[in-house]
Design a protein that fits this description.
The complex is a heterodimer of chains A (185) and B (367). By secondary structure, chain A is of the alpha+beta class. Chain A is built from six helices and six strands, in the order βααααβββαββα. In chain A, a hairpin with a 3-residue loop joins β2 and β3. Chain B is an alpha/beta fold and 367 residues long. The longest helix of chain B is centred in the middle third of the chain and has 17 residues. Classes of the chains: A alpha+beta (185), B alpha/beta (367). The interface between A and B is large, with 48 and 55 residues.
């Protein structure tokens, strides 16, 4: 069997992990509807601010560790993903069976890249909501599972974050200032 | 980025670009040590705005920058602009008109606040510009047939006019803004504008005896209420007497930026022209290069339009891993080039002189 593994972590899966981590009993569907919670917003920010490689992999492994602990299993045999290269991408074109994206190199910076991805590399839910502008994170790295190391690739689409009242107030106050500023016409 | 000195009587048009969609900017010396900056792009390594670097390296006093003009909100035209606004505190800030100011500011602020958590979006760049403006700097909402700057130097008229966006585009934009405010609530998507190129601000720069037409990314549309045909058919500012001898060809020299009426009504015969290639899409195409070459006295490119189809250089293990999971990953190469043109403002029969820096060059095609 080809050791090439492509892991796609969908919004629901991520959120479910988080709900288990926080001791809440969500179904996958409930979790999807609860992605607006502040708690998960915090998690999202940590998870997607991936300038710091160590922080990112720690988050991922911690999440999976707790998931196994919750289900009563030992986590000796956990899969731990260690990223070696990360990008932030946005979709630039959607085709029948693929999508194109522009990629910002989060590991080394420098020139951007572009690539085409098969839509079969992402979950069905993500395929349905795929559109130009959609933001995602792509990591490739190594994964240890049952004592074996294999190369792995992960695509995570950014989640929708709900606005809170303080943000709305901040926006209103800024707009009021802009409307007062001097204009030539 | 050092170019020839900025003599008081010499106008210079400096087009700075990095190829592959990284951005473009234009710094113009209007004469008398007065400058304008149009659009912005950044050095990918340092993050510094290239027009700012250009001003610094040529020892130009930031207080002499009179206008900072944002032709439209594509990332390749606004990236780094807040740095320029912050440094050039005496400059007015010009951007494309939205009829309903409140709705417009609601949208950009909401979108910026939401996207700011994750990325440096075009709206966050725009809002940073608004936040950085000094109290004395005014905002201009540019639209068709509008004079944005005027002065007199040695009895010569110096003027900058906006020729677009059209009234119809402004009306449509007001409707679009309501939908955009809804889109702005989503943090998982880069908020797309409908036809952002239609909202581009085309500029006519009149400097003494010489005129410069800067095409931004405006396209030609079938309906003459939009795009270039709205200018060629209905503008009250352009006329037979102020045709341009210098043209920054719109939209990276793409086919949708061409119409013979532009060349007949807005430009003198055989003008000088420049193109900022977009190598990711291999723009301009060969047939358009031939067409433009035949229409101009000389045609200048800031970099090669050839697509760079190679992977980025990395550690061999990482390169292997990338190839295994997605062999289509290719580098979008940066290629900094500056096309600089100068002309004597006070001399009626003066000719444009060119200078190329970095990867810029004058094109020469076999007929």
């Amino acid at each position: 069997m080809d050791s090439k593994t492509l892991e796609i972590l969908s919004v629901e899966e991520d959120t479910l992990n988080e709900s288990i981590q926080t001791g809440e009993d969500y179904t996958s569907e409930e979790a999807t509807h609860n992605i607006y919670s502040e708690k998960i917003t915090d998690y999202e920010e940590k998870d997607t601010t991936i300038d710091d490689t160590q922080t990112h992999s720690e988050n991922e492994s911690t999440s999976e560790k707790d998931l196994f602990t919750k289900s009563g299993q030992s986590y000796k045999n956990l899969s731990v993903f260690e990223s070696i290269q990360k990008w932030k991408g946005h979709v630039t074109k959607v085709k029948d069976e693929s999508f194109e994206a522009r990629l910002i190199d989060l590991t080394n910076g420098g020139a951007d890249e572009f690539a085409e991805f098969s839509i079969f590399d992402i979950s069905e839910n993500e395929r349905e909501s795929l559109e130009i502008g959609k933001i995602f994170y792509w990591s490739i790295g190594r994964k240890e599972y049952l004592g074996q190391i294999e190369k792995s690739s992960r695509i995570r689409f950014q989640k929708v974050i709900k606005w809170d009242l303080s943000l709305v107030n901040k926006v209103n106050s800024k707009v009021a200032e802009y409307l007062k500023a001097p204009e030539a016409n | 980025m050092k170019i020839n000195s900025f003599d008081l009587d010499i106008c210079s048009v400096n087009i700075i670009s990095q190829g592959g969609g990284y951005g473009e900017s234009i710094v113009i010396h209007l004469g008398n040590r007065d400058f304008i900056v149009i659009d912005s792009c950044v050095d990918k390594k340092t993050g510094k705005a290239l027009p700012l670097l250009f001003l610094e390296e040529n020892n130009i006093d930031f207080s002499r920058v009179k206008r900072i003009i944002c032709t439209h909100w594509h990332k390749d035209h606004i990236n780094g602009m807040p740095q320029i606004v912050e440094k050039c505190q005496d400059a007015d800030f010009v951007f494309a008109r939205a009829n309903n100011k409140k709705k417009f500011y609601d949208f950009v602020t909401l979108d910026s606040e939401n996207k700011e958590r994750f990325e440096n979006s075009t709206t966050s760049d725009f809002v940073k510009c608004l936040d950085s403006l000094s109290n004395k700097a005014r905002r201009w909402r540019a639209s068709y047939d509008q004079i944005l700057y005027s002065d007199v130097y040695k009895s010569q008229r110096i003027a900058i006019s906006a020729l677009s966006p059209s009234e119809k585009v402004n009306e449509d934009y007001e409707i679009e803004l309501s939908g955009l405010i809804d889109q702005a609530s989503k943090s998982d998507i880069r908020t797309p504008l409908l036809s952002p190129n239609d909202k581009s601000v085309v500029l006519l720069i009149e400097i003494g005896y010489h005129n410069v037409l800067l095409g931004a990314d405006l396209e030609v549309k079938d309906n003459d209420l939009y795009g270039w045909l709205n200018i060629t058919r209905y503008s009250n500012i352009v006329n037979g007497a102020n045709k341009s001898t210098y043209f920054k060809i719109p939209h990276h020299g793409s086919e949708n930026g061409f119409h013979q009426e532009i060349w007949d009504k807005l430009l003198e015969k055989d003008p000088i022209a420049s193109i900022t290639p977009y190598s990711k899409s291999s723009l301009p195409k060969q047939d358009m290069l031939h067409k433009y070459h035949n229409l101009t006295k000389s045609l200048h490119l800031t970099s090669s339009p050839k697509k760079f189809n190679r992977p980025k250089k990395r550690d061999s293990q990482i390169t292997k891993a990338i190839l295994r999971f997605n062999p289509t990953v290719k580098e979008l190469r940066k290629s900094l080039g500056i096309v600089s043109h100068t002309i004597d403002i006070t001399a009626k029969n003066a000719e444009w002189k060119s200078q190329h820096i970095g990867e810029a060059f004058e094109i020469s095609l076999a007929s």
